[in-house]
Specification:
This protein is mainly α. It has helices at 3-26, 33-39, 54-76, 82-93, 96-100, 108-111, 120-143, 149-169, 174-200. The longest helix has 27 residues, at 174-200. The termini are far apart.
């Protein structure tokens, strides 16, 4: 790789990292070209050498943030399979630590409500990343003997995202922790019931 190309790639990564940081803290509306380039330590004029428009930056920031969040969860569940993997992921995602540290967590609590108004490119990224998460979770549910594992995986993911988003919105009130615990407990009951059903067969 040439020195010029390497410098451009490094600059691209700095812009994307700044956009991801803003996304987690302030949602999609928090990502402005001026603000991102300032945080990246670069001039606004250099933005269009890396992205054709703000929409492309939003989509790439969402994809990168979701991917990093998923990789972090997978690292916490390392060595686990089946229902143990699902429970590990759910407990980590639906935790006060995750809710209280948005700078290193899932970007959806800050951005989910904005995505329908953010254009087809951004919505497509969300759909693709959720499909990927569903595929992985359904494989672990399948290993646990859960029927309709694709549908059940999507339901669990929706509960997790909805739970952390509501807890985030209620942050500072006792109900915030209650939401997280209720969602975790529901997933654990679901897993136990499926284990019991499988054991009877």
């Amino acid at each position: 790789m040439s020195t010029k190309l390497a410098r451009k790639e490094k600059s691209h990564e700095r812009i994307l990292a700044a956009a991801c940081s803003k996304l987690r803290k302030s949602g999609l509306t928090g990502i402005t070209v001026n603000g991102v380039m300032r945080d990246a330590g670069m001039t606004v004029g250099g933005f269009y050498a890396h992205f054709p428009n703000r929409q492309t930056l939003l989509a790439e920031a969402l994809r990168s943030s979701l991917n990093n969040s998923f990789l972090r969860l997978e690292s916490l569940a390392a060595g686990r399979r089946g229902s143990r993997w699902v429970l590990s992921i759910a407990r980590a995602y639906l935790s006060p630590e995750h809710r209280d540290n948005p700078e290193s967590g899932c970007p959806l609590p800050a951005s989910l409500g904005e995505i329908p108004r953010s254009g087809e490119t951004v919505k497509d990224v969300l759909a693709e990343e959720m499909q990927r998460f569903q595929d992985v979770m359904s494989e672990h549910l399948k290993e646990s003997g859960v029927p309709n594992n694709k549908s059940e995986a999507l339901a669990l993911i929706s509960l997790m995202i909805g739970g952390i988003s509501l807890s985030h919105a209620l942050r500072g009130s006792p109900l915030s922790d209650e939401v997280l615990k209720s969602c975790r407990d529901h997933i654990e009951r679901f897993i136990r019931s499926k284990r019991a059903t499988t054991d009877k067969k």
